[in-house]
């Protein structure tokens, strides 16, 4: 049985406390009115950032524009910036919340694929996967609460939830049959409940199989895993539209569901690798060998390439077509989010390609630790790029909200996952393929 070390537990608790303090300060320091926004814009940190807007207003005034209209424009600009700055702590919290929840979901999907494929190499890792998926119920509850708060207008992350915006926007009105709060939150509840039900019953059957005299529970898991994968492939696409793409309701991409999947799926496999390496270093998982680690690294490499293929396909087709309604999505990210936008490509493609293409490197622990850290951070930045531009616009910067949210959810993830690993033995003893998995070598 695994024992949650006091040092790691203390570390996770410290991360949560420090993270909560950062999140709290982020909300506290957000401007409350346009007077505070004016003071912020006048400061050195933001003055140059908004110089163009002020110069534009002066140019209009100099050209003889009506003073009242100029003042109205200025006020509208300040209100827009106020909304963006008030969104910032919410958006930072949302990015971290959805990222860690989807990592646990990705591990659950990877586990289901192993069940349906009747894979012989992976059963020694099943309990590690189940431990990681223990975060899914916790993450789902927090995420669902955030969605409800969005619907109750505690923030402006989803502009189509604001009746005033919808009333003035014909395009959003045309989508209101789908993008409306009751239907949206019902879909979210169905998705989250469905995923968590599979997680509950698959774990229950796996544990029951250990005490069984036949393979009946394994066969049950095979059947429900096949059903879950069908359910997932439908709900994942809709989830990506609902929870991420609808942040930019004027923009759409038919590749977006696959793109989001690739991002959190490779992050999930990378997380399995990291936790497996940690447990091995602590003397656990005696039957896990370098061949198992090598296979995980191959999946990390392969899905990093897959993510890049989707990134390039989406970007190249939209950029080449140069349709104004579509290209604005990438123009904003290239002009305003240049460093994180292209930095994510370097961390999620160039780095894994250069490091993990070497077969020997896939078995060396310190190289895998380095590669895993870069990949996970790179895909966190990827989610940052997907969510932040539509919620905070050009008001982004890495501050206490972003750091605090990341630390809090990282600490919570570590605490929940490693607590779950202490509950059951780390080896699924009665799995039909467990002996093959124990002696897996190539």
Which key terms come to mind for this protein?
442 residues
What topology emerges from the helices and strands here?
Blueprint: H1 6-29, H2 34-42, H3 44-47, H4 51-62, H5 67-117, H6 126-133, H7 135-151, H8 163-167, H9 170-174, H10 181-210, H11 216-243, H12 256-281, H13 290-321, H14 324-336, H15 338-356, H16 365-392, H17 400-421, H18 434-438
Structure description:
It is a single chain. With 442 residues, the chain is mainly alpha-helical. It has 18 helices and no strands. It has helices spanning 6-29, 34-42, 44-47, 51-62, 67-117, 126-133, 135-151, 163-167, 170-174, 181-210, 216-243, 256-281, 290-321, 324-336, 338-356, 365-392, 400-421, 434-438. α4 packs antiparallel against α5, α6 crosses α17 and α11 packs across α12 (256-281). The longest helix has 51 residues, at 67-117. The chain is elongated, with a radius of gyration of 24 Å. The two termini are 28 Å apart. Mean pLDDT is 90; it is low at 44-62.
